[in-house]
Amino acid sequence: MIAGGTDAAVRMKEGKWRPEVWINIKGIHELRYISEKDGAIHIGPLTTHTDIIRHTLLQKKADVLVEAAREVGAIQMQNMGTIGGNIGTASPAGDTIPALYVLGAVFELRSITSVRLVPIEEFFIGPGKTILKKKEMITNIIIPPQKANEIGIFQKLGPRKAQSISIVNVAISLLMGKDRKCLGGKIAFGAVAPTIIRAKKCEALLTQQPLTDEIIQNIGKIAWKEVMPITDGRATAAYRRDMASSLLERGLYRLLRRWENDGEK
Amino acid sequence: MEKNNTEALNWVGKRVKRIDGPEKVTGELKYMTDYQFDNMLWGKVLRAKYPHAKIKSINTKKAEQLSGVVTVLTHQDIPGFNGFGIVIPDQPVLCSKVVRCTADAIALVAAETLEIAEQALELIEVDYELLEVISDAEKAMLPTALNLHPDGNIHSHVKIKNGEVDQAFQEADIIVENTYYSPRQMHAFIETEGGWGVMDEEGFITIRCPGQYAYRDRMQIARALAYNPERIRVISSPIGGAFGGKDEITVQIYLALLAMHTNGRPVKIHYSREESVIAGIKRHPFKVYMKTAAKKDGTLLANEVRAVADTGAYASLGGEVIALAIEHSCGPYKIPNVNLEGFCVYTNNGIAGAFRGFGVNQVCMGIETHLDMITEMLCIDPVEIRKKNVYHQGEISSLGHIVKTSVGTYKTLETAENCDLWKNREKYKADVSEPWKKRGVSLATSFHGIGMGVGLPDYGAASIELLPDGKFLVAVGCEEIGGGNGTVYAQVAAEILKCDISQIKVVQGDTSKTIDGGTVTASRSTYTGGRAVAAAAPNMLKLLTETAAEMLEVPASKVEVNPNRIAANGSCLTYQSIFDYLYQKRKQTRVEGHFFLPKEKKEIEGSGGAPHHIYGYLTHVVMVEVDTLTGETDVLRVVSIPDAGKVINPQGLEGQAEGGAVMGIGYTLFEDVLIEEGYHKTRNFTDYIIPTIRETPLIETFPVEEAEHSGPFGAKGIGEVVMIPIIPAIMSAIYDATGARIKHLPATPERVFNALKALKNENIQSAR
Ligand SMILES: Cc1cc2nc3c(=O)[nH]c(=O)nc-3n(C[C@H](O)[C@H](O)[C@H](O)COP(=O)(O)OP(=O)(O)OC[C@H]3O[C@@H](n4cnc5c(N)ncnc54)[C@H](O)[C@@H]3O)c2cc1C
Questions:
Q1: Which of A151, B491, B534, B727 is the most exposed place for a label (fewest CB within 10 A)?
Q2: Residue B16 pLDDT
Q3: The CATH number of A150-262 is which of 2.170.130.10, 1.10.260.40, 3.30.390.50, 3.30.470.20?
Q4: Mean pLDDT computed over every residue of chain A
């Protein structure tokens, strides 16, 4: 199956993906939508990153996904690449995936004869590997809309600012109380393990005390314990571990700043 | 040329639009690799499977039998000399006995389609016997190392000694000593290596292939083919970027060999990016040890340098690169005592050769960083220490020769000192957006020789022809490499011929249309080509005036050259009518101009060609912001202050200054082709990181124009120095921001972060 082709064409050129038949789904307009129905946001898999970035509903109620989409490649990739393709490639460094994790996304998978709903945490099983069956495809991405006091941020470190594959990325979503008090939150790291990792220990610390700059630093400091990165051409495992801490600290700091400046959305 | 400086100029010094601009921005222009022909064949090159191995046998039978394959060639099919290389032709066209790097070519195929050609490569059977891989230049220098070439692994060794170094180090108040490592940068031109070859019924061969010196490419082709060069035409312009990467032969000889076996059908080769990464030449990675001594007042006393360059498997221009590096290793300063030495060493790491800056990039970081270290220890101003130590025109350089030509360093430093970024640097530095971000502002200065050194032929030539429509065709050998030299030639011609620039057509890089005028390298094409046009133009004026005098039957002294017209005694002649007259009389309508570059009389013994007669100078001021949480460095502002002599086209100069700055940012922060045990780890632009528009800062260019009277209208050169001082300037700005010195480039986020971490640990230790 080929959607935007920004992953598929590259793999094809490298000789890695050479199926006998490619099914081009890019023209199925029915699968390119963003809507709010029955208290849930629905995103069609052929929605491009640019569609996501520009959509006011998502800007308000799925801010972390909008930020992640903004970090995919650069304009050309955002215009061509789709969210379904980003999920389908199942790269540990895929940028929208951590965002979908912290938003608690559920995927609708369909074949001609079946439909099932799968929570994101059960979907990915390894680099490039998902539970998707042979004749199935993703037909809907369902996320609960953020509440008024829910805010999110996406942080990415690549070898440069545009057109780069994440060395480490992190998505954070917080449910805020008064001042700097956090009522709950989710943190998901990318590129530091075979699949996305939820930083449960850090998450548990979010609600202990008001998130002062010092507490933020302390939460950041333990993030490296939650990740299991490898060394590759882009970075060493040690640096990736350090960066898990740095990005979490940077993300929380920026998020809290925004919370204080904007208050409730 | 001096007298022109005082007259009002119409074209020179003006922001004249690129004459090739419209067709480039609309995409209408075709580069040579853009052409398709109906009956064309595709050529492919079989590369070595191993970085170092003996070839036991090559069997091409199966490949030849594949349907759609037109020809398969090996070393046995080379009629002439099986080798190429600009100075020492030690690289086989097609390997016969041994392969020394994965860039080595073993066989050529021409086939009906690219796919068939690729398939045919897979059918060629090569039997190898593996040999030990030499992957480290210093190890390659050991006497026990396996020799890659008959004369050993040290391809060249250059030395410059001046004064009493040992004594100076003893007397010095301050000594700094460090080792610097620099990356294997890739030219990353937009047009990968490629071109066309075709042989006609009479055996005339035409090669269309972007290159930096058509006549030399033709010579190298003719040598391999044992063919009369007069029967080969090389068209080498326009080039989709080269930066030195197309100075050496790329695919010209392959194309010619294949063209001899395809029955008159054109053959095209065009490398994929992946093939270009492996087969194309790269910048030499250097290890530079440097020790510098100074007096308490900041006067530089002595400099000791030992540089080792990894040239990969073949020489190409490696010997010249290390020579230029050593010549420039002390910066544009007068250091009375120096002991400088450089080695160019063979390894199995691909092939290194010419690249914008030509060795100076790798050494400038040493001396400039040392100046900053001394500055800091002595609490003096970084501009002051440079002003104190720079040589001026007429003074003796660190190499011990008198610099007779124009020297603008001092002026560039004055401009730097007074620019907004430097004057208000404390204000800008304080302006960080987030608490963990740190800003630094630094400057550095450097220089770069223009033209070839002592001992190499260096001349320029141009012709100007009056065309039937009354326009002038200016023909210069130097190719259009992207920098806009064609527009410069048009400006110079229009200025002297007193005509509108639209009257000038320019043709470049074609052995059948342009006379041999040397390379488009060494920052020389504005200076040399421009000067050659300036030598030809008066000959054209003479032809026009004398013809007009004849036509109007007046003495030549009565003829006036007015803008776009020739007049005498009240009557006017158009250029067209002059052409008609000359044509009817069967008289020559074309003139030539020749120019020999002035040279130093004597080579510094052992230096490999130093000194140059002319240098261009430049100071960079940069501001960076370092994210101390991640180690990311963002270059926010650049001020580029070149002394390129008289600026012929400010727009073109700014283009070079901006492009050079971005290339320098790439070199300092991102780029490196990684090779492990002879195999490339870098594959393509997925893992070779070059700056994008988001890494491109605000760049301001303030030229100081220190006229060089031997050049056209006082111009020198600009092409290379634009990417040099920015390298140490960024390194130093990172230090200014964070206190961490990076001595191993590129300064990737990981390297910067680790340096910051080490610094933190040091501080904790020393606090205890
Ligand atoms: C230069 C460049 C830069 C890039 N930078 C980034 C980056 O910064 N961050 C990042 O995350 N990615 C990046 N990418 C990767 C890519 O652009 C994204 O992953 C993009 O979202 C893929 O979408 P697509 O529609 O092009 O996928 P395609 O290539 O069309 O498909 C990718 C895979 O998903 C499958 N697929 C597509 N749609 C569905 C569906 N509905 N159901 C099931 N399977 C499906 C396909 O079968 C295929 O296996 C980059 C790619 C390039 C070439």
A1: A151
A2: 97
A3: 3.30.390.50
A4: 95
Cβ–Cβ under 8 Å, residues B315 and B608? no
Per-residue model confidence as pLDDT tens digits over A171-189: 999 999 998 999 999 999 9
Q: What's A161-226 look like in SS3?
A: CCCCCCCEEEEEEEEECCCCCEEEEEEEEECCCCCCEECHHHHHHHCCCCCCHHHHHHHHHHHHHH
pLDDT of residue B766: 82
Could you say which residues of chain B have pLDDT below 70? 1-7
Whether residue A207 is predicted with pLDDT greater than 50 in this model: the reply is yes
B694 touches chain A (CB under 8 A): yes
Mean predicted confidence (pLDDT) in A96-116? 97
B21-30+459-596 is classed in which CATH architecture?
Answer: 2-Layer Sandwich (3.30)
Q: What's the pLDDT tens digit per position in B244-267?
A: 999 999 999 999 999 999 999 999
- Asked if B750 is an interface residue toward chain A (Cβ–Cβ < 8 A), one would say yes
**Rounded to an integer, what distance in angstroms lies between the CA atom of residue B450 and that of residue B584?**
44
Residues of chain A with CATH 3.30.390.50: 150-262
Q: Is A86 in the pocket of ligand 1 (CB under 6 A)?
A: yes
Total beta-carbon pairs less than 8 A apart between chain A and chain B:
52
Rounded-to-integer distance, Cα B514 and Cα B579, Å: 21
pLDDT one-digit tens code per residue, A215-265: 999 999 999 999 999 999 889 999 999 999 999 999 999 999 999 987 655
Report the gap between the CA of A211 and the closest CA in chain B (Å).
17
- Which residues in chain B are closer than 8 Å to A243, comparing Cβ atoms? 630, 753
List residues bridging with A184 in a β-sheet. Answer: A175
Domain B286-453+603-767 in the same topology as domain B21-30+459-596: yes
Per-residue model confidence (pLDDT) at position B641: 98
- Using a CB-CB distance cutoff of 8 angstroms, which residues of chain B are in contact with residue A233? 674, 681-682, 687
Would you tell me the crossing angle of helices A237-262 and A213-222 to the nearest 10 degrees?
A: 150
C-alpha B737/C-alpha B741 separation (Å) is 10
Contacts of A179 (CB under 8 A, 6+ apart): A210
Q: Which two tokens stand for residue B322?
A: 């290390």
Q: What pLDDT sits at residue A263?
A: 62
Choose among B682, B695, B754: nearest Cβ to A161.
Answer: B695
Where along chain A do the CATH 3.30.465.10 domains lie?
34-143
Tens digits of residue pLDDT in B561-615: 988 889 988 889 999 999 999 999 999 999 999 999 999 999 999 999 999 999 9
Distance CA B452, CA A187 (A): 60
Q: Give the CATH number of domain B32-131+193-270.
A: 3.90.1170.50
What are the extents of the domains in chain B? 21-30+459-596, 32-131+193-270, 286-453+603-767
pLDDT on residue B82: 98
- Just give the CATH number of B286-453+603-767: 3.30.365.10
